[in-house]
Amino acid sequence: MAKKEMSTHQTNISAQPRIHQSAREIQAYGTVSHALPLTLDEPVRLEMTEQLNLLLADTMTLRDLYKKSHWQVAGSTFYQLHLLFDKHYGEQVEIVDEIAERIQLLGGISIAMAADVAETTRIPRPPRGREEPPVQISRLLDAHEVIIRHCRELAERSSRLGDAGTNDLVVSDVLRPNELQVWFLSEHLVDVPLVHAVEPNVRRAG
Ligand SMILES: [Fe+2]
Asked: How far is the CA of 200 from the centre of ligand 1 (A)?
């Protein structure tokens, strides 16, 4: 028998890649691996992975909103905003990876594809066309606010459930960088003179 198996195996040897393969999923979305040596109960990991997937979908949307803004920005502040938007994009890329891998290590499944993200995110869909910088920045700030609000809720909930790792990730790697990006964006919406200061005794006509 062993001899026959060996000869069959030898005749099947081929340099042809076995393409177009398919099989059933090995784990369904929305579930967590049953037993992991993390000393975190399955219900806790289920709740945390569900919440982190919401945070992930919103972060992926904000990431893409930054690239859209980077490409489509117009006007006299083009160069500065073009660079700033891409810097924030790069930082959001890293945040996306950290959230996604936390979901996987908790035994869950990270949301990944654009269509699934679009169905899940709480951030409103922007138009395909171009918008002026103040509108772009306002839209980005609104998206940050959705994420920051969720971070505060999730930080408290994860702490209460004893998931210190998720708490640390949410506060250190998501909340704080988002707060910093909000500062850099919002300063662009302060209406101050560029060249001539407004003298104290001059009233604006109005
Ligand atoms: Fe670019």
From this structure: 42
Distance 88 CA to ligand 1 centre (A): 12
Higher-confidence residue: 204 or 126? 126
Is pTM beyond 0.85? Reply is yes
CA 141 to mean position of chain CA atoms: 15
CA of 71 to the centre of ligand 1 (A): 7
Ligand 1 centre distance from Cα of residue 122 (Å): 26
Nearest-angstrom CA–CA distance, 27 and 31: 7
pLDDT in tens, 142-169: 999 999 999 999 999 999 999 999 999 9
